[in-house]
Amino acid sequence: MCGIVGYTGKKQAAPILLDGLSKLEYRGYDSAGVAVRNNAGKHEIVKTNGKLAVLSDKLKKGKTLKGTCGIGHTRWATHGMPSEINAHPHCNDDRSIVAVHNGIIENYIELKEKLTGKGYTFYSETDTEIATKIVDYYYKKWKSPVEAMVSFTLRVRGSYAIAVMFEDYPEEIYVARKDSPLIVGTTEDGSFLASDVPAILKYTRNIYYVDNMEIAMIQKGKATFYNVDRKVIQKKPVKIDWDLDAAEKGGYKHFMLKEMHEQPKVVTDTLNSLINNGRIDLSAARLSDDELRSVDRVRIAACGSAYHVGVVAKYITEDLARVPVDVDVASEFRYRNPVFGENDLFVVISQSGETADSLAALRMAKECGVKTLAVVNVLGSSIAKEADKVIYTKAGPEISVATTKAYSAQLIVFYVLAVQLAYARGKIDGDAYSRLIDEMLNLPSLISSVLSDDERLKWFATKISNKKDVFFIGRGIDYAICLEGSLKLKEISYIHSEAYAAGELKHGTISLVEDGTLVIGVITQLKLAEKSVSNLTEVKSRGAYVMCLTSEGNYSLEEQSEFTFYIPKTNAYFAPSLAVIPLQLLSYYVSAAKGLDVDMPRNLAKCVTVE
Ligand code: GLU
Fold first, then answer.
1. By three-state DSSP, how is residue 456 classified?
2. For residue range 456-497, what is the model confidence (pLDDT) as tens digits?
3. How far away, in angstroms, is 146 Cα from ligand 1 center?
4. Spelled out in words, what is the top-level CATH class assigned to the domain 449-596?
5. Is position 303 annotated as part of the catalytic site?
6. To which CATH superfamily is domain 3-241 assigned?
7. pTM for the full model?
8. Phi, psi of 306 (to 5 degrees)
9. Which atom of ligand 1 is found nearest the CA of 75?
């Protein structure tokens, strides 16, 4: 689930591996390691528990490990605690085979028993050591790395991106992949492999995506791809147009801060990719008006913040286009045997395009013959490749674990879809259509103005940073905003927080409100404002300390709250794009005030490729 980097070429490998791993640090990890083939042709392995900086110090920035072919890894422990011994790379007994792996080997117990029966012993608790020794077993049997990797692929269940070096095959790295991303890039001076684009973007923009059940042999300046029938397959590289600076901090203290400030741009870019000359154009996704008219129901499955985008989409699409929308958490959806309708449009939302549960939900929908659409950020990712249609968010690389700009870009896609669904189905006329498009096009400048209004939020963040519990309450679209605001706060500031539909609070949870409990009321939807204000009065009379997030002009709310933040006026449907900004900023400043690791919060990973 975490980071893999590999290099073979003319240059020293260790500094390249450390640099590549540092570009993947954002994905969250607990230990790190590298293996390099030294000048005597032997594999040297160096690992540490904890941060990459410790590994880099141990290796004097890579200088002490000489050799031009190597693999590196940052581990997010699934099998066995984070420790030096469990860190990757793993190896066979004489270190002639070394490997790094992302993902989970599901049948590891069965494989361990098989290997134990053959005399193998194990030094770590990881499934990856077992995977490495399975490769060793097949290599000894077939005497060929490609055969060993093919047998591995056929024998192992679960998800993996695995990179292996064989002592007998100097300057070569072998990889295999299933349900965990792996990319390869070749240049004249050397070849690279990685689990994600930012690790190798500075060396090449021409990226080969290794597909499921494929194997690759990587040599200096060259990569050869095989299927499980051992046939060589031809692949074309995909050109990545991401801005190199987008993967660097560019003067900001944290990636999250930088990415929040990139939101006006990514919203503009996403709008420009979907709106042409004042009209919505979904031709890049091959979504015609006829198709939109034939949809009886939209079903969305996603995880985390992407799920919250789905909740916003439900409220807007049902109201505007009068199409029923169901939203599910992907990890629940995939296991509950859902009933599909013939004219359902199944939509998966994922920044990385590799989210394991969302991918599984997509496959399930496809097996049931349902039309599928993916909304993803990463070109060539598994979800993008497997869905019938794709709309790309134009967020660029998002490094901070807590999403901000990808969430904002996803919102835009669903506004556009809702408006086009409504128009294609005759629910709104040409004037309303144009007005809605104009309002959307105005969002980037409004987002900029909210971003520049952060001084009071910074001050308020220091006041609430010692709170133990926070409740976000709102109704309708405001409830959907609360879900995201609450998740943002808990993931990076470690404050317990919950989002509640404002009317639901008194059915149990209000018993938790006591003197000083922070309640954040989101009231951007004026038609429900009075009802939400009543709910705020209820908590205030039980001692709550209240913050209100509302639209300009709604000044009477000052009476109810200790701190009020105003967002500019916009169409109520699009308020989430503005209201989420102060909630992101607030979470950021609370986390920073507490001195926490904003970009890499504990226990979390950016790209959740395990179930
Ligand atoms: N399952 C492996 C382990 O626990 C790999 C984890 C990862 O993807 O980082 O070591």
1. helix
2. 999 999 999 999 999 999 999 999 999 999 999 999 999 999
3. 23
4. alpha beta
5. no
6. Aminohydrolase, N-terminal nucleophile (Ntn) domain (3.60.20.10)
7. 0.74
8. -65, -35
9. 9
